[in-house]
TrEMBL record:
Cofactor entry: [4Fe-4S] cluster; [2Fe-2S] cluster
Binding site residues for [2Fe-2S] cluster: 109, 142, 202, 272
Protein known as: Biotin synthase
Pathway: Cofactor biosynthesis; biotin biosynthesis; biotin from 7,8-diaminononanoate: step 2/2
Membership in a protein family: Belongs to the radical SAM superfamily. Biotin synthase family.
EC number: 2.8.1.6
Subunit comment: Homodimer.
UniProt keywords, alphabetically: 2Fe-2S, 4Fe-4S, Biotin biosynthesis, Iron, Iron-sulfur, Metal-binding, S-adenosyl-L-methionine, Transferase
GO molecular function: biotin synthase activity
Superkingdom of the source species: Bacteria
Gene expressing this chain: bioB
Organism: Streptomyces viridiviolaceus
């Protein structure tokens, strides 16, 4: 397929596909799927070998958010029966983080619900980061606390944070349909603040919210422009009790195409399979490792993932290896230059939007998290 040969060549040169090429990846048929995975897999192996980076989520503060992000079980007015608790103490959070690290995680992601942190919240998280680094100085710490005010990214950096996550989630043109309490521009601003403070920027998307192929390509091209070091790709978990509860739009094949398109557009960036991996990729998860070089180990913020042991077995069975703390995640040019996703080519007319195949909602695969941080039960790691 000429398209795939072109995309592999461009990926190895860190050159951007055109919008038409990215749309064409999303429009491939199921018969072409293994060819698409093989092509994007070449790009993945060129930049990241067979390594899989493991990340571990610690939900520092769960639920009761004043924002109205439609996809989120912690949103204002959510009826989802999730765990709700206020800030974990630094000792509790570092204990939860230690479970993930001993399970093989290289990065700990400290997440808190809310619009953004107060300065007191930044103090709290700074104490938590210090507690985690005292236990294990080689662990990477990423903070995800919402919209940042001036100076907060610098304070987190000083406290030892390595990275900051804030996702763009969807295209600029549909952002207002998903959230009304803040804007797409607010999100871009926070990613830029993190970058400017010397934090490794992590910013990604959520697929499956009813968006078009054009929206998906838009958000991935916008991410390329923002040049984060890591791009988490979430697949919507349609929680009962949220406005998107009926949005069961994804198939395993569609998820693989989305990951392949993301890899072609961001060839040398850590592409991470995030929430919804087990729910939507299901038995196709091992194929997705040929596209992404990073996953979350264990549970998500408000839902349970498959057992950490099953994650490790899957990685080994698929012929991949867990990335160690002595291995550098990013290719040399990114690790040293602090960015450089390659040239960016945009523009052009949009391709067609194939209808997503519908299937029976797999609500049986959505399990509200009842263990780990904020409970008395052992975490999954
Ligand atoms: S995504 Fe974050 S800001 Fe939006 S509702 Fe959920 S916790 Fe609040």
């Amino acid at each position: 397929m000429d398209l795939l040969n072109t995309l592999v060549d461009k990926g190895l040169r860190r050159e951007s596909p055109t919008r038409e090429e990215a749309l064409a990846v999303l429009a491939t048929s199921d018969d072409e799927l293994l060819d698409v995975v093989a092509a994007a897999g070449k790009v993945r192996r060129h930049w990241f070998g067979r390594r899989v980076k493991l990340n571990y989520l610690v939900n520092l503060k769960s639920g009761l958010c004043p924002e109205d992000c439609s996809y989120c079980s912690q949103r204002l007015g959510s009826k989802a029966e999730i765990l709700k608790y206020t800030w974990l103490k630094p000792g509790e959070a570092s204990e939860a983080a230690a479970a993930g690290v001993s399970g093989g995680a290289k990065r700990v992601c400290l997440v808190a619900s809310g619009r953004g942190p107060t300065d007191r919240d930044v103090d709290r998280v700074s104490e938590t980061i210090k507690a985690i680094k005292e236990q294990n100085e080689s662990v990477e710490v990423c903070a995800c606390l919402g919209l940042l005010s001036d100076g907060q990214a610098e304070r987190l950096r000083e406290a030892g944070a390595d990275a900051y996550n804030h996702n763009l989630n969807t295209s600029e043109s549909t952002y207002g349909d998903i959230t009304t309490t803040h804007t797409y521009a607010d999100r871009v601003d926070t990613v830029q603040k993190a970058h400017a403070a010397g934090l490794s920027a992590c910013s990604g998307l959520i697929a499956g919210m009813g968006e078009s192929d054009e929206d998906l390509v838009d958000v991935v091209f916008s991410l390329r422009e923002l040049d984060p070091d890591s791009v988490p790709v979430n697949f919507l978990i349609p929680f009962e009790g949220t406005p998107l509860a009926k949005e069961w739009n994804l198939t395993p094949q569609r998820c693989l195409r989305i990951l392949a398109m993301t890899r072609f557009v961001c060839p040398d960036v850590e592409v991470r399979i995030a929430g919804g991996r087990e729910v939507h990729l299901r038995t196709m998860q091992p194929l997705a490792l040929h596209l992404a070089n990073s996953i979350f180990l264990g549970d998500y913020l408000t839902s349970e993932g498959q057992a950490g042991k099953a994650d490790l077995e899957m990685i080994a069975d698929a012929g991949f290896e867990v990335e160690g703390t002595d291995q550098v995640t990013l290719p040399g040019h990114r690790a040293t230059a602090g960015g450089g996703c390659g040239s960016h080519e945009g523009g052009g007319a949009c391709g067609s939007t194939p209808a997503a195949r519908t299937e029976e909602p797999r609500t049986d695969l959505v399990a509200v998290r009842r263990r780990g941080a904020g409970t008395d039960l052992a975490p999954n790691a």
